[in-house]
Design a protein that fits this description.
single chain, 297 residues, alpha/beta, Rossmann fold, 8-stranded mixed β-sheet, AB_hydrolase_1, DNA-binding_regulatory
Length: 297
Amino acid sequence: MRRLTTALASLSGGAALGVLGVAGYTAWSLNGPRRPWPDYAFTPFEVRADSEDVRFATADGVGLAGWWLDQPGSGTVVICAHGHRGTKSDMLGIGSGLWRAGHTVLLFDFRGNGDSDDGPQSLSHHEQADLRAAIDLASSRRPDARIVVVGFSMGASTAILEGATDPRVAAFVLDSPFSTMGEVVAANYRRYRLPSEPIVPLADLINRLRYGYSYAQVRPLDAAPALAPRPVLLIHGTDDRVIPYDHAVQLARAAGPNCELVTFEGVDHCGAYFEDRQGYIDRVARFLDAAVGRARR
């Protein structure tokens, strides 16, 4: 019995350390600084798009980098927001496509990514300041233009959170956003057959203590109703392994009747563009024409 008790205590201690390790790794993977090496990336040169390098800063002093693809006669500025650990290069397909369709486009790197400076990173919390700075830049450069945000994954969730309180955004294209931070973390634990309890609450606690914000502060589902009556195009694949399709259903319901949910059967996370690149660009361009119109040249 003594040996059994000792063995059970060791197993219990090992399990506790394992849970703590997973929770700590979760907090670091969501927030910790991490840049790829080598940092080779495509630029507007590869897609033959005319562009201008731009630099601008957030309210908390983080320097951001972007590419401004100008269409002087356009009445619309499209801001493209990439996903977690992505860069503005990821947006070159949709960005150059919408530029060729006649829209001015701003591609930018969130803090800690690409050519932008380091700063406190998160999952759609601190990044709201980055998107706000991008909107400031678009507004100052084209004060008469209507602003649209096209976001993917974290970028889409950030667009909901920032757009809910920023009336300067006229319309939204949201590809694969999550409804709440807690739910998307729990979904990824389940994906790897890990129990969400007690790991999610512990990861949330570490997140608050180490990175200064809680999962409860990142809930696009609560912000989505404030997007109305502005038009929203919501895109999601049914086989999304990172952010389950149910998140899109919840968000579409919360955003109201001006939200159109476009479902891609059998498509994984942010995979709709790659199913039919030109078709995706055309669909978004038609949405923009209907949602915000086109200024006369």
